[in-house]
Amino acid sequence: MNNQQLPTIDKVDVHSHFFGPAMWKGLEKLVGAPDEDATFSKVQESTYHMQRFDAEQRLELMDEYGIQKSVLSFPSMPVYMGAAGETARPQQRKQSAQFINDHFAEVHRNHPQRLLFFADVPLSVDVDFSCRELHRAIEDLRLQGAAIPTNIAGRRPSEPEFEEFFSEAEKMGVPLFIHPQNAYGREQMRKYMITTIIGYPAETSLTAAYMILDGFMEKHKNLKIILGHLGGFIPYLYRRLNAHTEASGVDPTKSGKANLSNQPSDYLAQFYYDTALGNSEALELCLKVVGCDRILFGTDHPYIEKAEAKSIDFIDRTGLAADVRDKIYRLNADKLFKD
């Protein structure tokens, strides 16, 4: 910012991605270049997309926007390795998770107060290994949580085969960041970036809906789950979420009616929601539905040009009370990621 005064450093960005040059080189050596259809291959020359910032460059950018801490992630190995490559090369997938987590730990050790990380776990190829890697990442490497995709090789996180992992994360008190990935029906969303615009929020909503209706959230009341992009669509369709429980004359054996203690929409307040790619109207409604203690500041850097400026701008224009704004920018994250 040259001679301009820096803003007060008072924000925690929980939705920001890290693609440092050393990490990129290591992944290419370990598993090869990104899949030719992957986002990485298409936008790596862009000025903003997929910025390969090292830690020092990232800190400079954070300073510019008053970001005290970033909780960084790389929940993208399924995309990097391709739709089938991840499950076709299970050993390389597990090695890539270990490499990413080791690299994150090194960066975190050098900047422990400012650069925090969500660990990578290869749930698509080995649940037991993922549990062990979660323990290693949190207890030995001192990372701050784990990132998982909205669908795990086409399966939803709430399916029984992944129960061991989520039970372990709940016992450990580990925050889990769920990032949209490989959107269902993406073959029909090739034009106009519709996969990103519609497919990814729909993915997040679909995963959250199954977590609620499968009884997953009722079973895991203490699990700390962050949904990106203000929860996709689901907070804004909460009445539709309740529709099947309110409908008369429905045969539960045919409809798959959920057996829940509360209305489905009541479980929305168990999730956390980040502000990445949001707008004032959506933020206001999300606040009404889930309350101000469940919303976290997020930017989605570097997937959107000038992500930090745009996220801060819409939050500041929402006209929030000072205490609510402080909770969103910093206090909620400080509480969630407390030592």
Low-confidence stretches: none
Radius of gyration: 19 Å
Please summarize the sheet with the most strands. Answer: 8 strands, parallel
Residue fraction in strands? 5-15%
Overall outline = globular
CATH topology: TIM Barrel
**Top-tier CATH class:** Alpha Beta
Tally the structural domains: 1
- The string of secondary-structure elements, in order, is EHHHEHHHEHEHEHHEHHHEHEHH
Query: Helix- and strand-based class?
Result: alpha/beta
CATH architecture: Alpha-Beta Barrel
Strand line-up across the major sheet:
1-2-3-4-5-6-7-8
Instruction: Give the N-to-C terminal Cα separation.
Output: 32 Å
Share of helix, binned: 40-55%
Itemize the secondary structure elements and their pairings.
Elements lengths: L10 E7 L3 H11 L7 H5 L11 H10 L2 E7 L3 H4 L4 H4 L1 H21 L4 E6 L6 H14 L4 E5 L13 H10 L3 E4 L14 H20 L2 H4 L5 E3 L10 H4 L1 H4 L5 H4 L16 E3 L5 H11 L4 E2 L10 H10 L5 H15 L3
Task: Describe the structure using short key phrases.
alpha/beta, TIM Barrel, 8-stranded parallel β-sheet, 16 helices
Characterization of the model:
It is a single chain. The protein has helices at residues 21-31, 39-43, 55-64, 77-80, 85-88, 90-110, 127-140, 163-172, 194-213, 216-219, 238-241, 243-246, 252-255, 280-290, 307-316, 322-336; strands at 11-17, 67-73, 115-120, 145-149, 176-179, 225-227, 272-274, 295-296. It has 339 residues and is an alpha/beta fold. It has a single domain, classed as TIM Barrel (Alpha-Beta Barrel), CATH 3.20.20.140. Helix 7 runs parallel beside helix 8 (163-172). The two termini are 32 Å apart. The mean pLDDT is 88.
